[in-house]
Amino acid sequence: ASFFGAVAPGNPVVDSFEAELRNVLGFLRRLGAAREPKRQQHENHRRGANALFNIWIKYKPRLPEWYYNEKLVKVGDSLAQIKEYKLAVSQCYGRYLQQFISVNLDDVMADVERFKFTFFPNGFRDKSAALTLHALQERNICIYQMVCSSDRNLQNQKSLQTCFSVLSSLQLTMQVALPQDNLCWLIHNGTIHIYTICRHLMTRGQSAKVLEYLLWASICMESSIPLLSVHYLTWRATLYAAVSQCYFDCQAGIHGEAFARRGLIKIDELKQLESISSSVPNSETKKIFREATLKMSVMIFRRAVFESRRKPITYHRPKLRVNLKEAQNLPRSCTVTKQLLAEMFDGVAAQFLAILEALSDSSRRLLQASSSLPDETEIHDVLSELFVAGLEILSEAKFCNNIQVHSYRREVRSNIFVITTGEDEVSGDAAMKFIKLAFSYEEWDVFDSALELADNFFQAQDDPIWKKAEMELKLLKLMRPLLLPRKLKHDVAVSEKSSKEAKLPHGSKKKQEVRKDSLKHGEPSHDLIVLATTVFSCVSICHENIQPDIEVIVDVIMFLWQKCKKGLQKIQWSGRDCLKSIHKYKAYQWVQILWIINEAVQKSSIADTNAVMLTEVTLCLTAILENAADS
C-alpha cells in the first residue's frame, strides 16, 4: 500500500481492502436478518467466515501494521453489533491479541505484572495501549454474549464460571487503565460491562459474589477525575443503587442503607463543588442531581420505613393489624409511613417508586414466596400501610402510557429508576408491578382495587404492547379463586365468618358447591381448566414482546402441575387398567390438563429454567398414554 502513497482513501490497495470488508460485513448482516433453513444458514455463515479469513491473510503483508491492527478491532466491533460474537473473537480480537501472546490468554490474567509486561511492553503512553485495552474488553463481552446465547439462564455451572472469569478480566483491564486519565472512556465502558453482567448474575441468586465487582465499578467511577463530572453522575448513582440492591439481596439491609447514605454524601459534595464553579446551574444539571438523589433516597427508605417501626423484644403491643377498609377510613395523616413518604419524596411518582422498592424482595416470586415475613406486628403494619399508600396514589394519580426505556437494562428485574421527582403520573408497568406485589403478599383487597383501576386503563390503550399486561391480569384474575380458600387462613380481619363473606366474590356459594361436587368425583374444577387453556393460549402467541413475563408463566404452570399430580395419583400407576381407572375416578379432564401443561412447557422457555419439571411432565404423560394404549 505504501508504494501507492499515503494509506488513505484513494490508495488502490486500501480501497480494495475496504470494499472487500464492506461486502463481507454486508453479507453477514443480511444473513442474520434472513430466515433460511438452518442447514443453508450454516453454509452461508461458513462462506462469510472463510471470506473474512481470506481477507486478513491476503492483506496482512500489503498494509502497514498499525492500519491492519486498527481494522481488526473495528471489524470486531462491527461483528459484535450484528451479534456475530464468535466470529469477532476468533477472527478479529483474538487475531489482534495474537501479536502479544500465543498461549491461552487466561493464563496471563492471574498476575498483574505479567499482564502489563505481556500486553503493554512499551507502557501505557504508547498509542496502541488504548486499542489493546479496548480489544481485551470487547473480547470479554463477546465471550459473555456467547455464554448467554447457549445458556440464557446460566443454569450450567461452567457458564457461571465463565461469567466470573470475564468479570475478573474486566476488573484487571480497568485496574491497569485507571491511573491514566486519557483512558477514562475505557473505565466508563468497563463499569457498564460489569454492571450488565452483574445484574444478570443477580437474577440467578449470585448477589453475594458479584458485590465486589459492583463495588469496584463504583470506586473506579470515583477514582477517575474526568468521570467525577455531573455528566456521569446519573450512571454513578445507578452503580451505587446496584451495590445497595446487592446488600439487600444478601439480607444485609443495614449495609445497603449505609452505602446509599454514603452515595448521598458524594452527590452532595459534587453539588457543592458545582455551585462554587458555576454561577447559575441550568435545568438539566438540576434534573441530574434530583434523579441521583432520588435513587439514593429510595434505597434509604427501603430499610428506614421498617426499622423506624421496630420495637424492642421486650415491648408488647396487642393491637391487631387493621385491614384495608379500616385504614381507608382513618385520617390521612395518621400513618407514619405516609408521613415518611411525604418528608422524603416530592411528587406521587417518586413516592410510588419508593413503595415499590420497599415491597420488592428478590427471593419472593409471584406464587412461591421463599422468604417468610417476620412475626413482628409492626412489620405487617408497615406492609399494609405501604399497600394502602400505593393504592391511594393509583386511585388519584394519572396513568401514563409511555413504556419505560432503560439505557442500561437487563431483562431481568427492572428497577423503575427513570421517574423524576415532582411528577404526578404513574407508568403502566409500575402499576403492574404493584399489582403483582399485592398478589404475592396476599393483600387481596388491595389487589382487587388496583386490578380494577389498571384494567380500565389497559383496555383503553390501542398500543399492542399493553396486550402483555392484559394477559397477565387475566391470569392473575383466574388464579385468585383457586388460591383464595388457602389464602383466607392468613387474613386477620374481623371474624372468620364475616371475613369469608367479605372476601368471596359474588355468586361464590354456587361455585363452591360445584367445586365440592367436582372434588368428590375427582374431577378438576372449571376454574382450573379455564386457567390451563388460558396459559396455553398465552404461550402460543408468536410475538414474544406481548407474551406474559416468563416468571408469571412458570409459576402458573408449576401451580397447575402440582394440582395435576394430585389429581392423577390414583391412575398414574394403574398399568393395564389405566382406562378403567380414568373412567372410575372421572380423570378425563386431568389428562387433558396434563396434555396442556406438556404443550405449554414445550412452547415456552421453561425447559431452560426447570428441566426437572419438563422431565416429570413428559414421563407422566407418556406413562398414561402408553398404559391407555395397552388397556
From TrEMBL:
Q: Which GO terms describe its biological process?
A: cilium assembly
Pfam families in alphabetical order: CFAP54_N
Which InterPro entries does the UniProt entry name for this protein?
A: CFAP54
Region Disordered: start and end of each range? Answer: 494-520
Protein name in the entry:
CFA54 protein
Q: What is the originating organism of this protein?
A: Eubucco bourcierii (red-headed barbet)
- Please spell out the taxonomic lineage of the organism that makes this protein: Eukaryota, Metazoa, Chordata, Craniata, Vertebrata
Quick one: which gene encodes this?
Cfap54
